[in-house]
Amino acid sequence: xxxxxxxxxxxxxxxxxxxxxxxxxxxxxxxxxxxxxxxxxxxxxxxxxxxxxxxxxxxxxxxxxxxxxxxxxxxxxxxxxxxxxxxxxxxxxxxxxxxxxxxxxxxxxxxxxxxxxxxxxxxxxxxxxxxxxxxxxxxxxxxxxxxxxxxxxxxxxxxxxxxxxxxxxxxxxxxxxxxxxxxxxxxxxxxxxxxxxxxxxxxxxxxxxxxxxxxxxxxxxxxxxxxxxxxxxxxxxxxxxxxxxxxxxxxxxxxxxxxxxxxxxxxxxxxxxxxxxxxxxxxxxxx
Amino acid sequence: xxxxxxxxxxxxxxxxxxxxxxxxxxxxxxxxxxxxxxxxxxxxxxxxxxxxxxxxxxxxxxxxxxxxxxxxxxxxxxxxxxxxxxxxxxxxxxxxxxxxxxxxxxxxxxxxxxxxxxxxxxxxxxxxxxxxxxxxxxxxxxxxxxxxxxxxxxxxxxxxxxxxxxxxxxxxxxxxxxxxxxxxxxxxxxxxxxxxxxxxxxxxxxxxxxxxxxxxxxxxxxxxxxxxxxxxxxxxxxxxxxxxxxxxxxxxxxxxxxxxxxxxxxxxxxx
Lengths: 287, 271
Prior knowledge:
The complex is a heterodimer. By secondary structure, chain A is mainly alpha-helical. Helix content of chain A is 77%, strand content 2%. Among the domains of chain A are: 77-117 and 158-238, MetI-like fold, CATH 1.10.3720.10; 239-287, no CATH class. Chain A contains 13 helices and 2 strands, in the order H-E-E-H-H-H-H-H-H-H-H-H-H-H-H. In chain A, strands 1-2 form a two-stranded antiparallel ribbon. Chain B is mainly α. The longest helix of chain B has 34 residues, at 62-95. Chain B is globular. The two termini of chain B are 22 Å apart. Chains A and B meet through helix 1, helix 3, helix 4, helix 5 and helix 6 of A and helix 1, helix 2, helix 4, helix 5 and helix 6 of B.
């Protein structure tokens, strides 16, 4: 009992520097963000009398709701695309790579560590009006003039997001596929399941936790993205992140920006809860 | 061994997909270095000719060097502090019975998931309310918060990979906690520490969102690039800069992952 207690104390004293930094870096700023969302911008200062005017404006003006919906829709699309494209890859490395597994994992995750800004920039170079795809297609004579829909569209943003977040999808799915007990697959085969049934009845259900974490790991951070839409989105591809960033920049209405950030956080939290609840329900129904 | 053989069967379509996947993953990024050597201000096919012109131009630009130095300063400070705190946190998480481990770890890993813009504006609001002027110090503070989860996640498999009883043996033989750490724990987790230093440096060196909200007048390299994106004539020099940054990042991350590779294989294969 004594030992247990002193161990806990030691563990938390080792953790304390990290926890203190995280508290100062996460909890305190969020607290102030919430408080500020009830203020009003007056010139370059704030009127600190609490008011819900910002929240009222956010719900009344259709632009805010529309942008929020579009952001959720676009990152939802990017998430589904990424997870679908990455699942076979995770499956391949988990089941079909026997030597140099680590090399494959490093290769798949390497681009993720490099600058996000530069990867977005790379897609601008690829998809641009005078970009790689257009100039290459014109060069070989397949098209007469550049395809305009490539850049500055929702599709451009979704492609770029899917590309940028691939590593976040592969790793959790790979880990849950790798953990699957191979003897279960043998048992299913011995009992007469073909490859398709075996996959649907054993592999897929057992890898669902990985698929779920991949989904959340991509959906949550991409909803707030503003770099990709700013560089590649055009007017149709503007997301809520761009609006938040503008409130802290050109528009200079910090309380409104804080309000929008809080609304974004709440929407993400709600969708996450619904998602977790729904997947839990489905999993119970299956088993 | 009839059973298990079907798992070892080669799946050609899947292999093809995997190779295609890697190509799509890398090719868009590789266009940056390709066009950085192209003798034309326009980024389009056909390629005109080979040139080092854009790289040579970079050498003469004072702000590029200043931004590079800023990025290195921020990166080194961030990686040392994040890794230092990360060692203790990873030890606490793996070595002791920790009540509330799940929520604590979840809390520490939050910066990996919460949209960067929300962290950026929240920290900006905090700093402005405290009356702290934006500078390289505030960027560094933001980067430490972003990098700590990476540092901890890199070192946890290291701690899990070696036997706790070695440390206990050292304690039984009369070493105190301080020397046990330096003579047993530190050498064992050293590859993890090195990997964490390299990876967190790279994350900080490449980081843009925190720098965007928390920079004062001194720009880091990604901020400098962002500023240059408005000028079409600066495009080739951005390509050159981007290629250098990509090359440095790839090498550092590859080194980091390679040094730490057996830690990963421990965790993956024991499961």
